[in-house]
Amino acid sequence: MLVDEHVLDLIPAYALGILDDADARRVSVHLDACASCRTELRAYSEVVDALPLAVTEFEPPGHLKESILRQARLSKAAEPAPQPGWWQMLKKSLSLNAPAWGMVGLALVLLLGASNLFLWQRLDRVEMSYQQMADQYLNTLRTVPLEGTEFTPDATGLLVISLDGEHGTLVVDRLPVLDETQQYQLWLTKDGERTSGGVFSVDEGGYGAKWIGSPEPLASYRSFGVTIEPAGGSPGPTGEKVLGGDL
Questions:
Q1: Mean pLDDT, 10 residues at a time, over the chain (247 residues)?
Q2: C-alpha distances in angstroms, 94 versus 44, 99, 183, 191, 215?
Q3: What is the pTM of this model?
Q4: Could you tell me if residue 75 is inside a domain?
């Protein structure tokens, strides 16, 4: 497989561990040779690792295992010929719009987590609707939408802050591809002071992802912006602003 043949459309599912064996091997081989896709995987893994922390732990009732097995036996006996699962149908549908899969994939990671939590709550007979469960889960992860400026009206971004507020992951889409002398730089603003959140580049489709660390908890910053700077970054913003948003 050529390194240029990126596997961005498979990385969200790879991070969740739900690819079939063939696709999982394909992604694994590609990651060994592609630093860009390894960076992408780290960004999604940050979100996946946070999913188990979004719900209070509880001890399952003793009858839970037997109830699940009994329902499985009844369902298997009654079910008709197997049909394509929702994941296969969703994956096929999304593959028709691959350039936008980056942003969709991040949302999918979050929604899959909410769905799994909903299942366990049902088994424990907690009286909570799916919508309430999803809202409760998504509210535990703070997100900051970033909008494009007049210079980049089609650009979008999403900053996902970790549960402890210490760090996060930035995902951007539809940013112009820069030449090798320039990079994008994220700025974190607090009390009028701007701190660099790091530099990054985007692929040929204008898509990029970056793990973000900061001197202070990321959740303590109020505003976030992205500018075009010389490769390696600047001490302060000097170039055109392309994205911005507030917490």
A1: 64 81 87 83 72 57 68 63 51 47 51 47 45 51 90 92 86 93 95 93 90 88 96 94 94
A2: 17, 10, 29, 41, 38
A3: 0.51
A4: yes
